DNA sequence: TTTATAGTTAGTAATTATTACGATGTGAAA
DNA sequence: TTTCACATCGTAATAATTACTAACTATAAA
């Protein structure tokens, strides 16, 4: 099943004109198998055993490329920058609930822009909407009872 | 008028138990006078003339502190991390329209969470909602007709 | 006003994150 | 299988962030 996801990522790379290298196949597999987010470092560490002498350069370049192509999405999780693969099974625009403990991501059907009336002087290009909290699993484990404060 | 804003920031520091140092007064003045966002570097550059030998350390520590206390807010603008002072005049929770050209910020009255029904298994802690685009001024100047694509 | 002290900053350096670039290697098309 | 534009490596430079100790200072208490 995961292998199928990896293949979808590779196809997406291909469709966008990227060459399919061994390293990129590995990146695809990493993201396909990841339960949550991956940092640049984690991607590097997940590859360096296989390709010793791998340069961070390669990782950064590919992450940036894949993000620009919409294959993966970039998030600022607390203090660090992490990536995760876009949801293939729902190829329409959507948002996420993000668990602060296990980093698991739950897709949302609703988008706040659907019934949002923009001020007429402002031309909207894009928006960001993310909800952070604790998922059912992590609540049951007793983590996350110290809910933080609201922030814009 | 800006001086008044700076004083509000200083008062907020004081209220939170921070000591009022000359450097912090300067940071307050910087944010009060800023039209848009400030990066850590810009804050540093805005201070180093007055305090030569100023360490980046001091800037980073204060930015982090001020953010934790809610005096300033942290944003990821395109590729860089920037800060701006919280809106004092509206001390209730709200969001922003952010101009991609001039970085000006326009407060929004509506919050998508007001009529959002959370899935019952998920305990919401906080959320992020930001709208990016081009403000009236920048549109008139002919910038920003090449609107980008939608992104989550 | 003076003193004590906890919080703050400077100075220095280490660590981490990110980008640059020329030489070499390789996927994919002809 | 040859070709070549694209990728990667190797190395290094640059930028961003954090650590730590000694010196300094805002604040409260004496």
In short, what is this structure?
2 copies of one chain form a homodimer. By secondary structure, the first copy, chain A, is an alpha+beta fold.
Task: Explain how this protein is built.
Two copies of one chain form a homodimer. With 152 residues, chain A is an alpha+beta fold. The first copy, chain A, folds into two domains: 3-85, Winged helix-like DNA-binding domain superfamily/Winged helix DNA-binding domain (Arc Repressor Mutant, subunit A, Orthogonal Bundle); 95-140, Dna Ligase, domain 1. Helices cover 35% and strands 23% of the residues of chain A. Chain A is built from five helices and six strands; from the N terminus they run H-H-E-H-H-E-E-E-E-E-H. Chain A has helices at 2-15, 22-33, 40-48, 56-68, 136-140, and strands at 38-39, 72-77, 80-85, 95-99, 105-108, 123-134. In chain A, the strands form two sheets. In chain A, strands 1-3-2 form a three-stranded antiparallel beta sheet. In chain A, strands 5-4-6 form a three-stranded mixed beta sheet. Chain A starts with a helix and ends in a 12-residue tail after the last helix. Strand 6 of chain A pairs antiparallel with strand 6 (123-134) of chain B, so a sheet runs across the interface.
Adjacency order of strands in the biggest sheet of chain A:
1-3-2
- Largest sheet: number of strands, sense, barrel closure of chain A: 3 strands, antiparallel
Number of strands of chain A: 6
Number of helices of chain A: 5
């Amino acid at each position: 099943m995961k292998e199928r996801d990896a293949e979808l990522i590779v196809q997406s790379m291909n469709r966008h004109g990227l060459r399919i290298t061994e390293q990129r196949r590995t990146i695809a597999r990493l993201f396909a198998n990841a339960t949550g987010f991956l940092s640049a470092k984690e991607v590097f560490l997940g590859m360096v055993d296989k390709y010793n002498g791998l340069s961070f350069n390669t990782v950064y370049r590919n992450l940036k490329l894949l993000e620009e192509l919409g294959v993966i999405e970039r998030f600022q999780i607390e203090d660090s920058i992490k990536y995760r693969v876009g949801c293939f099974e729902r190829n329409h625009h959507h948002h996420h609930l993000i668990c602060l403990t296990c980093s698991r991501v739950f897709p949302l059907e609703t988008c706040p822009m659907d019934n949002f009336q923009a001020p007429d002087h402002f031309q909207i290009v894009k928006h960001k909407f993310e909800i952070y909290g604790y998922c059912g699993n992590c609540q049951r484990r007793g983590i996350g009872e110290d809910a933080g404060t609201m922030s814009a």
